[in-house]
Design brief:
The chain has helices spanning 2-6, 11-19, 21-29, 37-45, 62-79, 131-146, 171-190, 209-212, 214-221, 288-296, 322-332, 335-360, 366-381, 385-401; strands spanning 9-10, 83-90, 95-105, 108-115, 153-158, 163-168, 240-245, 250-254, 257-262, 265-271, 275-281, 285-286, 300-304, 310-314. It is α/β, with parallel strands linked by helices. Helix 12 (335-360) runs parallel beside helix 14 (385-401) and helix 13 runs antiparallel to helix 14 (385-401). Bound molecules: iron/sulfur cluster (SF4). Iron/sulfur cluster binds at residues 20, 22-23, 26, 196-197, 200, 202-203, 206, 208-209, 212, 214.
Length: 435
Amino acid sequence: MADAIAEQLPARMLNEFAYCPRLFYLEYVQQEWAHNVDTLEGRFVHRCVDKPQGDLPDASSPEDKIKEAKIQEDKILEDKIHARSVTLGSERLGAIARIDLIESDGGKLVPVDYKRGSPPDRDRVPEGAYEPDLVQLCLQGLLLRENGYDSDYGIIYFAETRTRVRIEFTEELIARTLRLLEEARRVAQSGQIPPPLVASPKCPRCSLVGICLPDETNLLRETESEAPVRRLVPARDDKLPVYVQGHGHQIGLNGEVLEIRTKGEVIATARLIEVSHLCLFGNVQLSAQALREIVARDAIIIHLSYGGWLVAVTTPPPSKNIELRRRQFQAASEDETCLHLARAFVAGKIRNSRTLLRRNARAPVEAALHRLAALRRRAETAGSLATLLGVEGTAAREYFANFSKMFRSDGETSAPAFDFESRNRRPPRDPINAL
Ligand code: SF4
């Protein structure tokens, strides 16, 4: 966290802070990130302006500028500068920005910031753009000034409607920008994540809603809001694991597709977009290109022996959220916290087992349901981890003793009967244990 705060604060983060201080903290301090359709569209809009191109005129000091003013002015007016993706910082402001495009206008520089979508309705937003975009652009203008250039206004370019909205750097906007910059720095240094917004229309469009959990967090914080918890709609994950089992198989990458070959012949393919993780049994060779692409998509690779023993796991780099990691270690070292969490996990597991039996059993299971309900209550009040382990084991035995009642009997299907009695493995001795 200290490193992040010592750095110059990016103008993009000031935009996030103006949108929601908690979003800023999650991204800037805790380094959390998730894409949604808006962020992906934004990245698409920036694909051209993100390639650095062109130079700014020299303006290393005000004196130099005065001396060369005439030359520069002539040059600027002549060549109309179009520099793309220019990074400027200022130690005095403690800020940095990558400016999408810089244009010139009568010897003054104009930062142009690309945004997806269309400009807001002038009747509702007379400034022509929302505050987060205004302060981000204004900070870019201030950084140009700090680096010796004149800049009185900027442009927000809305890609969907191809509209340029001119934003004047008024005294009022500059004061608001500097005040927010100061506040953002203070929040980052506080070490305390700001609370979520309450029933805000911003949350459903926020890409970090699945990490922030605004309504759920507010409910647990017992805010005075009467707003009901809105349903969280997680991104649909249609991915599936890919299992590769066979001596000498090779996995390579062909565009967006994994190709599994043996003796030079492709025997199976899997589209990367549909792969949740890759399980390699035995001596399966994986190309460096395929490995890099799989972990770049946050999927893991599980290496197993030919008989299914776990050998190693290749994972993407771990999360940079140090605060979360610290809290997890702290919780793990506190017996009372461990017991509190473990009770909730085991009680939840027993509740799920009971629900599955209640919904799917094809034979009477009332007695088992009563026993599972009683075990769930005991799990919620268990006085020690040892007691909890015992309750969990008893509940698992109860569940698996009735497990086969959830399958069709021989008379209903031509498939082999499930004669499950207990858990066994390596090798599994019945079809259910082989699942
Ligand atoms: S979900 Fe809402 S409260 Fe949470 S970070 Fe996003 S905008 Fe802020």
